[in-house]
Specification:
The complex is a heterodimer of chains A (395) and B (291).
Chain A (H helix, E strand, L loop, with lengths): L12 H9 L2 H11 L6 E7 L6 H20 L8 E7 L4 H13 L5 E4 L3 H14 L3 E3 L14 E3 L4 H14 L4 E7 L2 H14 L5 E8 L7 H8 L6 E5 L3 H12 L6 E3 L6 H7 L7 E4 L14 H16 L5 H20 L4 H9 L4 E2 L4 E2 L15 E6 L2 E4 L2
Parallel strand pairs in A: 1-2, 1-3, 3-4, 4-5, 6-7, 6-8, 8-9
Antiparallel strand pairs in A: 10-13, 11-12, 13-14
Chain B lengths: L1 H32 L6 H17 L4 H24 L7 H23 L15 E3 L2 E3 L1 H23 L1 H11 L1 H6 L4 H27 L6 H15 L4 H21 L5 H15 L14
Antiparallel strand pairs in B: 1-2
The chains are: A alpha/beta (395), B mainly alpha (291).
Chain lengths: 395, 291
């Protein structure tokens, strides 16, 4: 969006009425021009603040509000203030699409951040592509950036990256026969599919492949089947929320002792609290945010994640989750791109997003390219083990 | 092989008894008012969540559980008083829709009060499983099953032997006639919701150590409990238990012997098949239209 030349309205008769209808933008520009300030950069966001995915959208919304205020307090980006508009899509893809449309057409935002889930993101992608507006998604699945879409970026790790990181460790330990148990919906389903795709490249054979529903109270039948599979050397659970906690407890009850891996879906202190003793020895993946205090002093992410954790805890009296981190990274990545682009011009911001290099976020260190609109490597995941009710960094 | 079978059996028993306990509340309210109460899952959730938050305040389980049950009963009675009774005379379908609204409201209130995270209660009698021929069974599963049996016996006594229980049954058969012989019909509906809330809360508390709990735990429990109640015959307590166990067994066995991808489908296929030939459910009495 170009900065309009200052307009001096003539406050008489029909011209005045016309001027009012020209909308607040013109008046706003006058005000800013008087302050010798640049036009605000409008950031539009649709998040699943309520509904089943509220554990994603709620911290994301809080983070955006917190950090936009922080950036504006420091004078904005090269004098451009940030202006945030957030809508709650309740986790519904159709609502996400209509809010994205509203943000683009009626709110006339310059950048889209959002889509807490893969479904809500995918619903908005065609709109962003058609309108030609930079769009940074906060959802996990690899389909968002593979194949690469001109205007679409994302900050979370993909499930494929998680599977690769786990399989790397399995290969290192010589555990090639894997029993996979995953949630049959959403996050777990997508993780399951990606695991099957990348297993061969790491020489991993998936000898048992079982699923459970997100709310199943018991998974001992599935685990018994895996235990009785000949040759199975390790167990990997891909899921989120209550499911992995049930699986973990059932694994201990059945006395299964093979190495047990969990995905990054459970990398929160809440999980350790839920499973208690049963969690000891589990290996899982976490971003720098999950293991902030344990990062070595030389780690470039350490100051970033510690500062964000403190700011979030001060504002909301809660632990900043990995998902909060996704939103923080997206906002600052956009802010830096807009800073380099010298304003809110959509095409320039997009080009600068693609040129992001060595951006230190909470999720990892991002380096985008025309072929990679996520910009994270497996190194951005930390392999951690649960020991004595706490995380222990393994790499 | 046999130890695997036994493990599937125990898994089915655990899952089934949870569904059964969830299903019982549907039967009571249906008995008293011909309403299917879709907020039953929320009663279960409130019982469990209230216990978690009271024990979190430092109360022992023996004090927290009765308080949580009392709180849930209050919620149940309030629901009947402020949402169901004012709509008296409306058709059962309208009332069912009201209960769906109540469930959404209670879920939202619970999220606002307790947050969106998952919580756990410690098992009542330890975590160490019983090992039977190589298969393991949790003490808590026995708690759930035992509670279910006690509840059925209690309900049988209440509806068969007490004046209040008989008044409830009479009201469900013919509200007008019941009123004529001096039964306070509005009181009966309040009583039924209170009783269903009590059952739900007790169920929620004994199953929470197995299932974990959260503000939206009621959705799954409500759905599975309803399936169990319909399969066994709505309005029949023993039927709800039988239905719950069948659904649980079907899920565990098909996860073990077929594929875990088909376990829900298998359970629902059984329900459909049974209802096709026995629309009243397994133990339901054939409905007779009274003129």
């Amino acid at each position: 969006m170009k900065v309009r030349p200052p307009v001096v309205p003539a406050f008489t008769g029909p011209v005045f009425a016309f001027m009012l209808s020209v909308a607040g933008i013109a008046v706003g520009v006058v005000a800013f021009a008087a302050d010798a300030q640049a036009q605000a950069i409008k950031i539009g966001s649709f998040l699943s603040v309520t509904g089943g995915a509220s554990f994603l959208g709620d911290p994301e919304k809080k983070t955006l509000e917190l950090e936009v205020e922080a950036i504006n307090r420091q004078g904005g980006i090269n004098g451009h203030k940030l202006d945030l508009v957030v809508y709650d899509d309740g986790g519904a893809a159709d609502k996400a699409a209509s809010f994205a449309k509203r943000l683009i057409e009626s709110d006339q935002v310059d950048v889209l951040i959002g889509g807490s889930t893969t479904a809500t993101t995918m619903a908005a992608i065609p709109l962003a592509e058609k309108a030609g507006i930079p769009f940074v998604s906060l959802a996990g699945a690899v389909v968002i950036v593979d194949p690469v879409k001109h205007w679409v970026f994302k900050t979370p790790h993909t499930d494929r990256l998680a599977a690769e990181k786990i399989f790397e460790d399995l290969r290192k330990r010589g555990l090639t026969k894997l029993g996979l148990i995953s949630e049959d919906a959403g996050f777990g389903k997508s993780g399951h599919d990606q695991s099957l795709i990348v297993a061969k490249a790491f020489g991993i054979e998936i000898v048992a492949d079982e699923v459970y529903s997100p709310r199943d109270p018991d998974t001992t039948a599935q685990l018994t089947k895996i235990r009785n599979t000949p040759g199975v050397a390790a167990l990997f659970n891909f899921g989120f929320g209550q499911g992995p906690a049930v699986v973990t407890r059932n694994v201990r009850q059945l006395g299964i002792t093979i190495p047990f891996y969990q995905s990054h879906g459970v990398a929160s202190k809440e999980f350790i609290k839920l499973v208690g003793e049963a969690g000891e020895g589990i290996r899982l993946l976490g971003s720098a945010l999950a293991v902030a205090e344990q990062l070595p002093a030389a780690d470039p992410q350490r100051p970033v994640v510690l500062a964000f954790q403190r700011a979030y805890a001060d504002a909301y009296q809660a632990e900043a989750s990995t998902f909060a981190g996704y939103a923080r990274d997206a906002l600052y990545m956009v802010a830096e791109a807009a800073g380099r682009a010298g304003g809110a011009d959509k095409a320039k911001v997009r080009d600068q997003l693609e040129l992001t290099k060595g951006f230190i976020g909470t999720t990892g260190i991002f380096t985008m390219s025309p072929a990679d609109h996520m910009g994270l490597s497996p190194a951005s995941f930390h392999l951690i083990e649960i020991r004595n009710g706490n995380w222990k960094l393994m790499d | 092989m046999s130890s695997a079978f036994l493990q599937y059996l125990f898994s089915g028993l655990t899952i089934g008894s949870i569904y059964a306990l969830a299903g019982l509340g549907f039967s009571i309210i249906y008995n008293a008012s011909r309403v299917i109460n879709f907020a039953q899952g929320e009663f279960i959730m409130i019982g469990a969540m209230a216990t978690v938050s009271l024990t979190g305040l430092g109360l022992p389980l023996l004090a927290a559980a009765p308080l949580a049950v009392a709180a849930t009963v209050l919620v149940g009675v309030a629901v009947a008083k402020f949402a169901i009774t004012p709509a008296r005379g409306a058709s059962p379908v309208t009332l069912i829709i009201i209960t769906i609204g109540i469930s959404v409201f209670l879920r939202g209130a619970a999220q606002a009060l307790w947050g969106k995270g998952f919580h756990v209660l410690p098992p009542f009698s330890g975590d160490a499983p019983f090992v039977v021929l190589g298969a393991v069974l949790l003490p808590q599963s026995l708690w759930v099953l035992g509670t279910t049996l006690v509840v059925i016996a209690g309900l049988g006594w209440f509806f068969g032997r007490t004046l209040h229980g008989k008044a409830m049954l009479a009201t469900s058969c013919n509200p007008l006639a019941a009123q004529l012989v001096g039964i306070r019909v509005s009181g009966v509906v309040l009583g039924a919701f209170g009783l269903a809330a009590l059952l739900g809360a007790v169920g929620g508390i004994v199953m929470a150590p197995i299932t974990f709990t959260s503000a939206d735990a009621g959705i799954m429990l409500g759905l599975k409990g309803f399936s169990a109640a319909v399969l066994g015959g709505l309005g029949n307590g023993a039927g709800a238990v039988l239905g719950g166990l069948i659904v649980g067994m079907a899920e565990a066995m098909s996860a073990g012997y077929l594929s875990s991808s088909y376990k829900e489908a298998t359970a629902f296929a059984i329900i459909l098949f049974v209802l096709l030939f026995m629309p009243q459910g397994l133990l339901g009495r054939a409905g007779t239209e009274r003129v």
